[in-house]
C-alpha cells in the first residue's frame, strides 16, 4: 500500500470501532460526570503530576507524590466547604483511569495507521507512542 491512499470508506471501516469505543467508554462517561472547574483543575494537575512517568528522577517522582497528596487534600476540603459529596473524588480518580485507557487506545490507533499506511503527523505519532508509564 506504500504510495497509495485509502478510500474514506476503508478508513472508516478500520477505525470506526476505535472511534465508537472512545465515545461510548470515555467521552460520554466523562461528559456525564459534569465536573466543575475545581474538579477539572484537580484532574489536570493529577494527570500532569503522575509519579510513574518514565525518564523522571526519583526526586521528581517523590515531589509528584507529595503534590498529588496536596491536591487530593485540597479537593476533599473543597467538597466539604461547598457541601458536595466527597465520594465525587472517586469520580475524579475514575476519570484518570479512563484517560489511561484512552491513551492505550490512541496508541493502538496510531499503530493501525502505520499498518495500513495512513499518514499521521510524525510529531503527533512520536508523542503518542512514547512510553509514558
TrEMBL record:
NR LBD domain ranges (all copies): 1-133
Alphabetized UniProt keyword annotations: Receptor, Transcription, Transcription regulation
InterPro entries in the cross-refs: Nhr-150, NHR-like_dom_sf, Nucl_hrmn_rcpt_lig-bd
Protein name (Swiss-Prot/TrEMBL): NR LBD domain-containing protein
Organism: Caenorhabditis elegans
Chain's gene name: nhr-94
Amino acid at each position: 500500500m506504500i504510495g497509495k491512499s485509502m478510500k474514506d470508506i476503508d478508513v472508516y471501516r478500520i477505525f470506526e470501532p476505535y472511534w465508537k469505543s472512545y465515545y461510548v467508554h470515555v467521552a460520554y462517561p466523562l461528559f456525564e460526570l459534569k465536573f466543575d472547574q475545581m474538579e477539572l483543575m484537580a484532574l489536570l494537575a493529577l494527570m500532569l503530576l503522575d509519579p510513574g512517568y518514565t525518564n523522571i528522577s526519583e526526586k521528581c517522582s517523590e515531589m509528584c507524590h507529595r503534590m498529588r497528596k496536596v491536591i487530593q487534600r485540597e479537593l476533599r476540603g473543597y467538597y466539604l466547604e461547598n457541601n458536595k459529596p466527597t465520594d465525587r473524588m472517586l469520580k475524579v480518580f475514575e476519570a484518570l483511569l479512563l484517560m489511561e485507557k484512552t491513551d492505550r487506545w490512541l496508541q493502538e490507533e496510531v499503530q493501525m495507521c502505520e499498518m495500513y499506511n495512513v499518514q499521521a503527523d510524525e510529531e503527533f505519532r512520536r508523542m503518542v507512542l512514547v512510553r509514558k508509564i
